[in-house]
Specification:
The chain is of the alpha/beta class. The chain is 38% helix and 19% strand. The longest helix has 15 residues. The two termini are 20 Å apart.
């Protein structure tokens, strides 16, 4: 497995990108359809852990991941998160990465809010997106979403929990936390949803969700699968929370592999 790291220029700073190339002995996949991973609200490249390596080796395709502006090793971001940040990232973050990596089309795989960004990008730029995999993605704002975020906000008030964020985001940790909690808890964000976005998604979609997700019910993958116009599949993992790729890694990999072979390989 070959891993490469680089920084991509962005109008507002630099974006950190990591790439994994499968070994020659990996299963033969479609090298023309790489994956781009989109992290969650507190995430970064490092927090994908061994998932990108496993994905690349299992499918035999290149896998790329990047830190959004303000996260991980990318440049800091100033000011509060905009309420349009999901649509903004789908256009202003993902496209520059694809251009810099000289990727014409890819599969977008997003965890949590990264899944919403992936679907939005597929709607805005269908010519660049060959498929979408969402893991624990939100489709609108549920009461469970708000309750989960309030609980997490209280948890991160403790120094030891805040230190976890600092480990991955450095001095940007407070901004990262606020960008998540204050945006989603803002009453002006309460009406956000993917309802108008999903009918524009024509690429194949796989929606993976845990039945015990702290931030959203099975209504999310149901809405995604029912709302897109392209072929859609969903996998509900039992006794699983908001981190299926860590809690049920083998089941998630099996589901993605089967979907990829059917739809894209």
């Amino acid at each position: 497995m070959n891993q490469f790291e680089r920084f991509v220029e962005h109008p507002k700073g630099k974006l950190f990108v990591a790439s994994w190339q499968p070994d020659p002995v990996a299963p033969s996949g479609s090298a023309n359809v790489p994956f781009l991973l989109l992290h969650d609200s507190l995430g970064c490249v490092g927090l994908w852990r061994d998932f990108p390596v496993r994905l690349s080796q299992t499918l035999g395709v290149p896998v790329h991941a990047y830190d959004r502006l303000g996260y991980g090793r990318s440049s800091a971001k100033t000011g509060p998160q905009t309420l349009s940040f999901i649509a903004d990232e789908a256009d202003e973050g993902i496209v520059p990465i694809l251009d810099a990596l000289e990727i014409d089309r890819c599969v977008l795989l997003g965890h949590s809010v990264g899944g919403a960004m992936a679907l939005t990008a597929a709607a805005i730029h269908p010519e660049r997106v060959a498929g979408v995999v969402t893991i624990a993605a939100q489709a609108f704002v549920e009461q469970r979403t708000l309750e989960g975020i309030r609980a997490a906000k209280a948890l991160f008030a403790h120094p030891e929990q805040r230190a976890r964020l600092t480990r991955w985001h450095g001095a940007k940790a407070q901004w990262v936390l606020d960008a998540w909690t204050e945006t989603w808890l803002d009453s002006a964000f309460r009406d956000w949803s993917l309802v108008s976005v999903l009918p524009k998604v024509t690429a194949p979609v796989l929606a993976i969700h845990g039945d015990r997700d702290e931030y959203g019910s099975e209504a999310f993958p149901n809405a995604i699968a029912a709302g897109v116009v392209g072929p859609a599949e969903q996998v509900i993992l039992r006794d699983c929370g908001h981190l299926p790729h860590r809690e049920r890694p083998d089941e998630v990999m099996t589901a993605i592999t089967a979907w990829f072979r059917r739809r894209l390989a």
